[in-house]
Amino acid sequence: MEPILSEVIHQRARIHPQRTACIAGDAVITYAAFRDRVCQAARLLNNLGLKKGDRVAILALNGTDPMELIFGAITVGVVPVSLPWKATPQEWAGIIADAGARHVFVSAVFAPGLAGLAREVAVHPMDPASWHALAPADRMDPAAFNPSDLAAIIYTSGTTGRPKGVMLSHANLYACASLSAMETPGLGPDSRILVCGPLYSIFGFGAFFCALYAGCTAVLMPMFDPAAALDVIQRQQITHALFAPIMMRAMAAVPEAQGFNSGSLQHIQYGGSPIPEPLLRQVAALFRCDLTQVYGLTETTGVGCALRYDDHRAILAGGGTQELPPIGSAGKAGLGVELKVCDDRGNEVPAGEPGEVRMRGDVVALGYWGEGAHNDRFLNDGWFLTGDIGVVDEAGFLTLVDRRNDMIVSKGVNIFPTEIEAVLEKHPGVKECAVVSAPHEDFGEEVCAVLVCTGERPDLLAVRKWCEGKVADGKLPTRLEFSDTLPRTLTGKVLRRAVRAPFWKDETKGVRG
Length: 513
Hints:
With about 525 residues, the chain is of the alpha/beta class. It folds into 3 domains: about 1-15 and about 25-145, 3-Layer(aba) Sandwich (Rossmann fold); about 170-365 and about 380-405, ANL, N-terminal domain (Rossmann fold, 3-Layer(aba) Sandwich); about 405-505, ANL, C-terminal domain (GMP Synthetase, Chain A, domain 3, 2-Layer Sandwich). The chain has 14 helices and 25 strands. The chain has helices at about 5-15, 30-45, 65-75, 90-100, 130, 170-180, 200-215, 225-235, 245-250, 275-285, 310-315, 415-425, 460-465, 495-500; strands at about 20-25, 25-30, 55-60, 80, 105, 120-125, 150-155, 165-170, 190-195, 215-220, 240-245, 265-270, 290-295, 305, 330-335, 335-340, 355-360, 365-370, 385-390, 400-405, 410, 415, 430-440, 445-455, 480. The strands form 6 sheets. The protein has a 9-stranded mixed β-sheet with strand order 2-1-10-9-11-12-13-14-15. Helix 8 (about 225-235) crosses helix 9 (about 245-250). The longest helix has 17 residues, at about 30-45. The termini are far apart.
Protein backbone atom coordinates (compact mmCIF):
# COMPACT_ATOMS: atom_id res chain seq x y z
CA MET A 1 0.00 0.00 0.00
CA GLU A 2 1.02 3.61 -0.55
CA PRO A 3 2.50 5.21 2.60
CA ILE A 4 -0.30 7.81 2.44
CA LEU A 5 -2.99 7.54 5.12
CA SER A 6 -5.97 8.21 2.88
CA GLU A 7 -4.79 5.60 0.36
CA VAL A 8 -4.86 2.92 3.05
CA ILE A 9 -8.60 3.53 3.53
CA HIS A 10 -9.35 3.51 -0.20
CA GLN A 11 -7.35 0.36 -0.86
CA ARG A 12 -8.93 -1.44 2.09
CA ALA A 13 -12.39 -0.47 0.81
CA ARG A 14 -11.51 -1.78 -2.65
CA ILE A 15 -10.03 -5.08 -1.44
CA HIS A 16 -12.62 -6.03 1.21
CA PRO A 17 -15.51 -3.54 1.15
CA GLN A 18 -17.85 -5.53 3.44
CA ARG A 19 -15.36 -6.21 6.20
CA THR A 20 -16.11 -4.25 9.39
CA ALA A 21 -13.79 -1.27 9.75
CA CYS A 22 -15.04 0.13 13.04
CA ILE A 23 -17.60 -0.32 15.78
CA ALA A 24 -18.75 2.39 18.16
CA GLY A 25 -21.70 1.59 20.37
CA ASP A 26 -24.46 0.33 18.09
CA ALA A 27 -22.78 1.64 14.93
CA VAL A 28 -21.10 -1.02 12.80
CA ILE A 29 -19.39 0.44 9.72
CA THR A 30 -17.86 -1.48 6.85
CA TYR A 31 -14.71 -0.39 5.04
CA ALA A 32 -16.80 0.64 2.02
CA ALA A 33 -19.14 2.74 4.17
CA PHE A 34 -16.26 4.27 6.10
CA ARG A 35 -14.52 5.23 2.84
CA ASP A 36 -17.73 6.87 1.56
CA ARG A 37 -18.31 8.78 4.81
CA VAL A 38 -14.70 9.96 4.85
CA CYS A 39 -15.10 11.29 1.30
CA GLN A 40 -18.38 13.00 2.27
CA ALA A 41 -16.65 14.70 5.20
CA ALA A 42 -13.91 15.75 2.78
CA ARG A 43 -16.59 17.33 0.56
CA LEU A 44 -17.88 19.31 3.55
CA LEU A 45 -14.40 20.66 4.27
CA ASN A 46 -13.91 21.56 0.61
CA ASN A 47 -17.25 23.40 0.64
CA LEU A 48 -15.99 25.45 3.58
CA GLY A 49 -13.07 26.60 1.45
CA LEU A 50 -10.40 24.55 3.22
CA LYS A 51 -7.48 23.46 1.09
CA LYS A 52 -4.27 21.48 1.40
CA GLY A 53 -2.23 22.66 4.37
CA ASP A 54 -5.09 24.41 6.19
CA ARG A 55 -5.84 23.24 9.73
CA VAL A 56 -9.21 22.17 11.13
CA ALA A 57 -9.82 21.60 14.86
CA ILE A 58 -12.01 18.82 16.23
CA LEU A 59 -13.31 18.52 19.80
CA ALA A 60 -15.18 15.31 20.59
CA LEU A 61 -14.97 12.04 22.46
CA ASN A 62 -13.91 8.93 20.56
CA GLY A 63 -16.39 7.87 17.90
CA THR A 64 -16.91 7.30 14.22
CA ASP A 65 -17.96 10.93 13.58
CA PRO A 66 -14.65 12.54 14.57
CA MET A 67 -12.74 9.77 12.77
CA GLU A 68 -14.66 10.50 9.56
CA LEU A 69 -13.73 14.17 9.87
CA ILE A 70 -10.10 13.44 10.71
CA PHE A 71 -9.61 11.17 7.71
CA GLY A 72 -11.82 13.35 5.54
CA ALA A 73 -9.39 16.16 6.22
CA ILE A 74 -6.37 13.97 5.50
CA THR A 75 -7.97 12.78 2.24
CA VAL A 76 -7.87 16.31 0.79
CA GLY A 77 -4.65 17.41 2.48
CA VAL A 78 -6.27 19.43 5.28
CA VAL A 79 -4.46 18.98 8.61
CA PRO A 80 -6.64 17.77 11.54
CA VAL A 81 -5.95 19.03 15.06
CA SER A 82 -7.84 17.07 17.72
CA LEU A 83 -8.38 19.13 20.87
CA PRO A 84 -7.84 17.41 24.24
CA TRP A 85 -11.31 17.21 25.77
CA LYS A 86 -9.84 17.03 29.29
CA ALA A 87 -8.36 20.50 28.85
CA THR A 88 -9.93 23.85 29.80
CA PRO A 89 -11.66 26.29 27.41
CA GLN A 90 -8.64 28.58 27.77
CA GLU A 91 -6.34 25.76 26.68
CA TRP A 92 -8.61 24.94 23.74
CA ALA A 93 -8.50 28.58 22.66
CA GLY A 94 -4.72 28.59 22.96
CA ILE A 95 -4.30 25.48 20.81
CA ILE A 96 -6.75 26.73 18.18
CA ALA A 97 -4.88 30.04 17.97
CA ASP A 98 -1.47 28.35 17.89
CA ALA A 99 -2.57 25.97 15.11
CA GLY A 100 -4.20 28.79 13.13
CA ALA A 101 -7.38 26.75 12.68
CA ARG A 102 -10.23 28.78 11.15
CA HIS A 103 -12.90 26.10 11.62
CA VAL A 104 -13.71 23.98 14.68
CA PHE A 105 -16.10 21.01 14.84
CA VAL A 106 -17.39 20.35 18.34
CA SER A 107 -19.79 17.85 19.91
CA ALA A 108 -22.70 19.27 21.91
CA VAL A 109 -21.28 18.43 25.34
CA PHE A 110 -18.22 20.64 24.77
CA ALA A 111 -19.90 23.42 22.75
CA PRO A 112 -20.40 25.82 25.71
CA GLY A 113 -16.65 25.91 26.25
CA LEU A 114 -16.10 27.30 22.75
CA ALA A 115 -18.90 29.88 22.85
CA GLY A 116 -16.44 32.71 23.34
CA LEU A 117 -14.56 31.84 20.15
CA ALA A 118 -17.47 32.40 17.77
CA ARG A 119 -16.14 35.79 16.64
CA GLU A 120 -12.65 34.50 15.92
CA VAL A 121 -13.29 31.11 14.29
CA ALA A 122 -16.22 29.30 12.70
CA VAL A 123 -17.60 26.81 15.24
CA HIS A 124 -19.61 23.94 13.72
CA PRO A 125 -21.67 21.33 15.58
CA MET A 126 -20.51 17.73 15.27
CA ASP A 127 -23.42 16.75 13.04
CA PRO A 128 -22.67 13.83 10.70
CA ALA A 129 -25.90 14.50 8.79
CA SER A 130 -24.24 17.66 7.48
CA TRP A 131 -21.76 15.57 5.48
CA HIS A 132 -23.62 12.27 5.03
CA ALA A 133 -26.05 14.12 2.75
CA LEU A 134 -23.25 15.31 0.44
CA ALA A 135 -21.80 13.63 -2.61
CA PRO A 136 -18.38 12.16 -1.77
CA ALA A 137 -15.45 14.38 -2.71
CA ASP A 138 -12.84 13.01 -5.08
CA ARG A 139 -9.80 12.15 -3.05
CA MET A 140 -6.67 14.06 -3.82
CA ASP A 141 -4.49 12.47 -6.47
CA PRO A 142 -1.88 10.38 -4.61
CA ALA A 143 0.74 12.05 -6.78
CA ALA A 144 -0.13 15.33 -5.08
CA PHE A 145 1.03 13.86 -1.76
CA ASN A 146 4.54 13.22 -0.57
CA PRO A 147 5.04 10.80 2.35
CA SER A 148 6.91 13.60 4.11
CA ASP A 149 3.89 15.96 3.86
CA LEU A 150 2.28 17.07 7.11
CA ALA A 151 -0.65 14.75 7.90
CA ALA A 152 -1.74 15.73 11.42
CA ILE A 153 -0.75 17.89 14.38
CA ILE A 154 -0.95 16.33 17.83
CA TYR A 155 -0.44 18.55 20.85
CA THR A 156 1.71 17.22 23.66
CA SER A 157 0.41 16.84 27.20
CA GLY A 158 2.58 19.66 28.44
CA THR A 159 4.68 17.78 31.04
CA THR A 160 7.43 20.40 30.67
CA GLY A 161 5.37 23.51 29.93
CA ARG A 162 2.66 24.68 27.55
CA PRO A 163 1.48 22.13 24.97
CA LYS A 164 3.44 22.03 21.73
CA GLY A 165 2.04 20.96 18.38
CA VAL A 166 3.97 17.97 17.06
CA MET A 167 3.92 17.80 13.26
CA LEU A 168 3.45 14.21 12.10
CA SER A 169 3.88 13.26 8.45
CA HIS A 170 2.22 10.47 6.50
CA ALA A 171 5.54 8.60 6.66
CA ASN A 172 5.66 9.01 10.46
CA LEU A 173 2.19 7.55 11.00
CA TYR A 174 2.75 4.80 8.45
CA ALA A 175 6.01 3.85 10.20
CA CYS A 176 4.21 3.82 13.56
CA ALA A 177 1.51 1.45 12.29
CA SER A 178 4.03 -0.76 10.48
CA LEU A 179 6.32 -1.06 13.49
CA SER A 180 3.41 -1.70 15.85
CA ALA A 181 2.03 -4.39 13.58
CA MET A 182 5.42 -6.11 13.33
CA GLU A 183 5.74 -6.20 17.12
CA THR A 184 2.18 -7.41 17.79
CA PRO A 185 1.71 -11.19 17.84
CA GLY A 186 -1.52 -12.45 16.33
CA LEU A 187 -2.50 -9.15 14.69
CA GLY A 188 -4.28 -9.85 11.40
CA PRO A 189 -7.41 -9.21 9.33
CA ASP A 190 -9.68 -10.99 11.81
CA SER A 191 -8.38 -9.04 14.84
CA ARG A 192 -10.43 -6.62 16.91
CA ILE A 193 -8.47 -3.75 18.43
CA LEU A 194 -9.91 -1.85 21.39
CA VAL A 195 -9.38 1.91 20.98
CA CYS A 196 -9.98 3.56 24.35
CA GLY A 197 -7.13 6.05 24.34
CA PRO A 198 -8.20 9.58 23.32
CA LEU A 199 -8.01 10.48 19.65
CA TYR A 200 -6.21 13.71 20.53
CA SER A 201 -3.15 11.62 21.46
CA ILE A 202 -0.96 9.31 19.42
CA PHE A 203 -2.15 6.65 21.88
CA GLY A 204 -5.70 6.69 20.51
CA PHE A 205 -5.18 7.95 16.97
CA GLY A 206 -2.25 5.57 16.43
CA ALA A 207 -4.30 2.58 17.63
CA PHE A 208 -7.12 3.40 15.21
CA PHE A 209 -4.81 3.80 12.24
CA CYS A 210 -3.00 0.59 13.19
CA ALA A 211 -6.34 -1.23 12.83
CA LEU A 212 -6.87 0.29 9.37
CA TYR A 213 -3.30 -0.60 8.40
CA ALA A 214 -3.90 -4.23 9.43
CA GLY A 215 -7.30 -4.32 7.73
CA CYS A 216 -9.05 -5.42 10.92
CA THR A 217 -11.76 -3.91 13.13
CA ALA A 218 -11.33 -0.99 15.52
CA VAL A 219 -13.75 -0.99 18.46
CA LEU A 220 -14.04 2.56 19.80
CA MET A 221 -14.96 3.49 23.36
CA PRO A 222 -15.97 7.16 23.90
CA MET A 223 -13.47 7.32 26.77
CA PHE A 224 -11.73 4.89 29.06
CA ASP A 225 -13.71 3.47 31.97
CA PRO A 226 -12.26 0.39 33.72
CA ALA A 227 -15.50 -1.54 34.22
CA ALA A 228 -16.80 -0.63 30.76
CA ALA A 229 -13.49 -1.68 29.17
CA LEU A 230 -13.73 -5.13 30.75
CA ASP A 231 -17.30 -5.41 29.50
CA VAL A 232 -16.40 -4.35 25.95
CA ILE A 233 -13.49 -6.81 25.83
CA GLN A 234 -15.85 -9.68 26.65
CA ARG A 235 -18.87 -8.54 24.65
CA GLN A 236 -16.98 -7.54 21.50
CA GLN A 237 -14.46 -10.38 21.75
CA ILE A 238 -11.50 -8.01 21.65
CA THR A 239 -8.24 -9.65 20.61
CA HIS A 240 -5.81 -6.71 20.97
CA ALA A 241 -5.75 -3.66 23.21
CA LEU A 242 -3.55 -0.69 24.10
CA PHE A 243 -3.44 0.53 27.69
CA ALA A 244 -1.34 2.61 30.05
CA PRO A 245 -0.29 0.87 33.28
CA ILE A 246 -2.61 3.10 35.32
CA MET A 247 -5.53 1.91 33.16
CA MET A 248 -4.67 -1.73 33.80
CA ARG A 249 -4.33 -1.03 37.52
CA ALA A 250 -7.85 0.47 37.49
CA MET A 251 -9.28 -2.55 35.63
CA ALA A 252 -7.65 -4.96 38.05
CA ALA A 253 -9.30 -3.07 40.93
CA VAL A 254 -12.83 -3.49 39.53
CA PRO A 255 -14.70 -5.89 41.85
CA GLU A 256 -16.11 -7.84 38.89
CA ALA A 257 -12.61 -8.33 37.43
CA GLN A 258 -12.23 -11.69 39.17
CA GLY A 259 -15.03 -13.11 37.01
CA PHE A 260 -13.63 -11.51 33.85
CA ASN A 261 -13.39 -13.80 30.81
CA SER A 262 -10.24 -12.92 28.89
CA GLY A 263 -10.54 -15.80 26.46
CA SER A 264 -10.55 -13.63 23.33
CA LEU A 265 -7.52 -11.50 24.28
CA GLN A 266 -4.29 -12.37 22.54
CA HIS A 267 -2.10 -9.34 23.20
CA ILE A 268 -1.93 -6.09 25.18
CA GLN A 269 0.45 -3.31 24.25
CA TYR A 270 1.13 -0.84 27.03
CA GLY A 271 3.17 2.31 27.39
CA GLY A 272 3.41 5.74 28.92
CA SER A 273 5.41 4.50 31.90
CA PRO A 274 7.16 1.34 33.10
CA ILE A 275 5.05 -1.13 35.03
CA PRO A 276 5.98 -2.20 38.58
CA GLU A 277 6.62 -5.93 38.89
CA PRO A 278 3.68 -6.60 41.29
CA LEU A 279 1.28 -4.92 38.85
CA LEU A 280 2.84 -6.79 35.92
CA ARG A 281 2.15 -10.12 37.59
CA GLN A 282 -1.36 -9.03 38.60
CA VAL A 283 -2.12 -7.96 35.03
CA ALA A 284 -0.68 -11.16 33.57
CA ALA A 285 -2.91 -13.23 35.86
CA LEU A 286 -5.99 -11.16 35.02
CA PHE A 287 -5.70 -10.96 31.24
CA ARG A 288 -3.77 -14.19 30.52
CA CYS A 289 -2.38 -12.93 27.22
CA ASP A 290 0.92 -11.73 25.78
CA LEU A 291 2.20 -8.30 26.76
CA THR A 292 4.49 -5.81 25.02
CA GLN A 293 5.74 -2.53 26.45
CA VAL A 294 6.39 0.22 23.90
CA TYR A 295 8.47 3.28 24.69
CA GLY A 296 8.11 6.38 22.56
CA LEU A 297 7.01 10.00 22.64
CA THR A 298 4.54 11.96 20.55
CA GLU A 299 7.65 13.32 18.83
CA THR A 300 8.57 9.75 17.80
CA THR A 301 4.98 8.92 16.80
CA GLY A 302 4.53 6.96 20.00
CA VAL A 303 7.02 4.18 19.21
CA GLY A 304 10.76 3.59 19.27
CA CYS A 305 11.65 0.74 21.64
CA ALA A 306 9.83 -2.35 22.77
CA LEU A 307 10.11 -4.86 25.58
CA ARG A 308 8.63 -7.59 23.47
CA TYR A 309 6.15 -10.33 24.25
CA ASP A 310 8.85 -13.02 24.47
CA ASP A 311 10.80 -10.81 26.91
CA HIS A 312 7.67 -10.65 29.08
CA ARG A 313 7.24 -14.41 28.88
CA ALA A 314 10.80 -14.88 30.13
CA ILE A 315 10.36 -12.35 32.96
CA LEU A 316 7.07 -13.90 34.12
CA ALA A 317 8.46 -17.45 33.93
CA GLY A 318 11.67 -16.49 35.78
CA GLY A 319 14.17 -18.99 37.08
CA GLY A 320 16.28 -21.24 34.93
CA THR A 321 19.68 -20.32 33.53
CA GLN A 322 18.40 -17.81 30.99
CA GLU A 323 19.54 -14.24 31.62
CA LEU A 324 16.32 -12.29 32.03
CA PRO A 325 15.61 -8.85 30.54
CA PRO A 326 15.60 -6.15 33.22
CA ILE A 327 12.14 -5.73 34.78
CA GLY A 328 10.90 -2.24 33.93
CA SER A 329 13.15 -2.00 30.90
CA ALA A 330 11.92 -0.16 27.82
CA GLY A 331 13.41 -2.94 25.71
CA LYS A 332 15.38 -2.61 22.51
CA ALA A 333 15.01 -0.32 19.51
CA GLY A 334 12.48 -1.31 16.87
CA LEU A 335 13.29 -2.11 13.25
CA GLY A 336 14.34 1.04 11.42
CA VAL A 337 14.92 2.96 14.65
CA GLU A 338 18.37 3.95 15.85
CA LEU A 339 18.96 4.64 19.52
CA LYS A 340 21.90 5.90 21.54
CA VAL A 341 22.56 7.38 24.98
CA CYS A 342 24.73 10.50 25.04
CA ASP A 343 26.34 12.92 27.45
CA ASP A 344 25.69 16.67 27.40
CA ARG A 345 28.19 17.14 24.54
CA GLY A 346 26.51 14.55 22.34
CA ASN A 347 29.11 11.82 22.85
CA GLU A 348 27.76 8.31 23.20
CA VAL A 349 28.38 6.96 26.70
CA PRO A 350 29.56 3.40 27.50
CA ALA A 351 27.08 0.67 28.36
CA GLY A 352 25.80 1.00 31.90
CA GLU A 353 26.30 4.76 32.16
CA PRO A 354 23.35 7.20 32.22
CA GLY A 355 22.81 9.81 29.54
CA GLU A 356 20.11 11.42 27.42
CA VAL A 357 18.29 9.06 25.06
CA ARG A 358 18.39 10.00 21.38
CA MET A 359 16.38 8.40 18.56
CA ARG A 360 16.52 8.53 14.79
CA GLY A 361 14.32 6.96 12.10
CA ASP A 362 11.11 7.36 10.10
CA VAL A 363 9.13 7.67 13.33
CA VAL A 364 10.79 10.99 14.27
CA ALA A 365 8.36 13.85 13.69
CA LEU A 366 8.88 16.78 11.38
CA GLY A 367 9.24 19.13 14.36
CA TYR A 368 7.09 21.50 16.39
CA TRP A 369 4.43 23.63 14.74
CA GLY A 370 4.45 27.39 14.59
CA GLU A 371 6.70 30.35 14.02
CA GLY A 372 9.32 30.61 16.71
CA ALA A 373 8.80 27.00 17.77
CA HIS A 374 11.80 25.65 19.66
CA ASN A 375 12.95 22.82 17.41
CA ASP A 376 16.43 22.48 18.91
CA ARG A 377 15.55 18.96 20.08
CA PHE A 378 15.29 17.91 16.40
CA LEU A 379 18.90 17.86 15.17
CA ASN A 380 19.90 18.40 11.55
CA ASP A 381 21.34 14.88 11.28
CA GLY A 382 17.93 13.35 12.12
CA TRP A 383 18.50 12.60 15.79
CA PHE A 384 15.81 13.60 18.30
CA LEU A 385 16.71 14.51 21.89
CA THR A 386 14.04 12.82 24.01
CA GLY A 387 14.80 14.58 27.29
CA ASP A 388 14.73 11.16 28.95
CA ILE A 389 17.73 9.90 30.90
CA GLY A 390 18.45 6.22 30.29
CA VAL A 391 20.99 3.43 30.54
CA VAL A 392 21.69 0.77 27.91
CA ASP A 393 23.13 -2.48 29.24
CA GLU A 394 25.57 -4.82 27.50
CA ALA A 395 22.68 -6.78 25.97
CA GLY A 396 21.19 -3.62 24.42
CA PHE A 397 18.21 -3.19 26.77
CA LEU A 398 17.31 0.43 27.50
CA THR A 399 16.18 1.26 31.02
CA LEU A 400 14.83 4.75 31.59
CA VAL A 401 16.18 6.47 34.67
CA ASP A 402 14.12 9.65 34.60
CA ARG A 403 13.23 12.86 32.82
CA ARG A 404 16.14 15.29 32.59
CA ASN A 405 14.03 18.07 34.11
CA ASP A 406 12.94 15.90 37.06
CA MET A 407 16.45 15.18 38.35
CA ILE A 408 17.09 16.10 42.02
CA VAL A 409 20.50 17.48 43.01
CA SER A 410 21.04 16.99 46.75
CA LYS A 411 24.43 17.38 48.48
CA GLY A 412 26.00 17.45 45.02
CA VAL A 413 24.55 14.06 44.04
CA ASN A 414 22.31 13.58 41.00
CA ILE A 415 19.21 11.64 42.09
CA PHE A 416 16.61 10.26 39.69
CA PRO A 417 13.10 10.01 41.20
CA THR A 418 12.05 6.95 39.21
CA GLU A 419 14.58 4.75 41.02
CA ILE A 420 13.07 5.65 44.40
CA GLU A 421 9.47 5.48 43.15
CA ALA A 422 10.05 1.93 41.91
CA VAL A 423 10.97 0.90 45.47
CA LEU A 424 8.14 2.79 47.16
CA GLU A 425 5.54 1.35 44.76
CA LYS A 426 6.32 -2.12 46.15
CA HIS A 427 5.35 -1.05 49.68
CA PRO A 428 2.08 -2.85 50.53
CA GLY A 429 0.46 0.33 51.83
CA VAL A 430 1.37 2.55 48.88
CA LYS A 431 -1.10 2.81 46.01
CA GLU A 432 0.98 5.28 43.98
CA CYS A 433 3.69 7.82 44.62
CA ALA A 434 5.75 10.66 43.23
CA VAL A 435 9.25 11.66 44.29
CA VAL A 436 10.21 15.29 43.75
CA SER A 437 12.71 17.85 44.98
CA ALA A 438 11.96 20.28 47.80
CA PRO A 439 14.20 23.18 48.86
CA HIS A 440 16.57 22.54 51.78
CA GLU A 441 18.78 25.05 53.57
CA ASP A 442 21.77 22.73 53.89
CA PHE A 443 21.38 20.23 51.06
CA GLY A 444 20.15 22.64 48.38
CA GLU A 445 17.41 20.16 47.48
CA GLU A 446 16.02 17.24 49.42
CA VAL A 447 14.19 14.09 48.36
CA CYS A 448 10.48 14.44 49.06
CA ALA A 449 8.18 11.42 48.68
CA VAL A 450 4.48 12.15 48.10
CA LEU A 451 2.39 9.04 48.78
CA VAL A 452 -1.16 7.98 48.00
CA CYS A 453 -1.86 5.25 50.55
CA THR A 454 -4.36 2.41 50.67
CA GLY A 455 -4.76 2.50 54.43
CA GLU A 456 -2.69 3.60 57.44
CA ARG A 457 -0.04 6.14 56.54
CA PRO A 458 3.57 5.18 57.35
CA ASP A 459 5.91 7.70 58.98
CA LEU A 460 9.16 8.93 57.47
CA LEU A 461 11.28 6.54 59.50
CA ALA A 462 9.27 3.54 58.25
CA VAL A 463 9.54 4.74 54.66
CA ARG A 464 13.31 5.17 54.94
CA LYS A 465 13.59 1.73 56.53
CA TRP A 466 11.63 0.24 53.62
CA CYS A 467 14.03 1.85 51.12
CA GLU A 468 17.26 0.97 52.95
CA GLY A 469 19.43 -1.43 51.01
CA LYS A 470 17.35 -0.90 47.87
CA VAL A 471 18.66 2.59 47.06
CA ALA A 472 21.81 4.34 48.20
CA ASP A 473 21.64 6.03 51.60
CA GLY A 474 22.13 9.46 50.04
CA LYS A 475 18.95 8.95 47.99
CA LEU A 476 16.64 8.03 50.88
CA PRO A 477 13.64 10.37 51.29
CA THR A 478 14.17 13.06 53.90
CA ARG A 479 10.67 14.51 53.63
CA LEU A 480 7.30 12.78 53.45
CA GLU A 481 3.96 14.17 52.30
CA PHE A 482 0.59 12.57 51.56
CA SER A 483 -2.12 13.17 48.99
CA ASP A 484 -5.45 11.64 48.03
CA THR A 485 -4.56 11.73 44.33
CA LEU A 486 -1.66 12.71 42.09
CA PRO A 487 -2.05 15.24 39.28
CA ARG A 488 -1.68 13.73 35.83
CA THR A 489 -1.26 14.89 32.27
CA LEU A 490 -4.06 14.53 29.75
CA THR A 491 -2.62 11.14 28.79
CA GLY A 492 -2.31 9.83 32.35
CA LYS A 493 1.35 10.44 33.27
CA VAL A 494 2.07 11.74 36.76
CA LEU A 495 2.73 15.47 36.46
CA ARG A 496 5.75 15.79 38.73
CA ARG A 497 5.99 19.50 37.91
CA ALA A 498 2.61 20.07 39.59
CA VAL A 499 3.51 17.82 42.55
CA ARG A 500 6.74 19.78 43.01
CA ALA A 501 5.28 23.29 42.64
CA PRO A 502 3.85 23.82 46.18
CA PHE A 503 7.23 23.14 47.77
CA TRP A 504 8.91 25.83 45.66
CA LYS A 505 6.24 28.54 45.70
CA ASP A 506 8.22 30.78 48.08
CA GLU A 507 11.50 30.34 46.23
CA THR A 508 12.84 32.82 43.70
CA LYS A 509 14.33 29.99 41.59
CA GLY A 510 13.18 26.49 40.79
CA VAL A 511 16.50 24.95 41.84
CA ARG A 512 18.95 25.36 44.70
CA GLY A 513 22.58 24.67 45.29
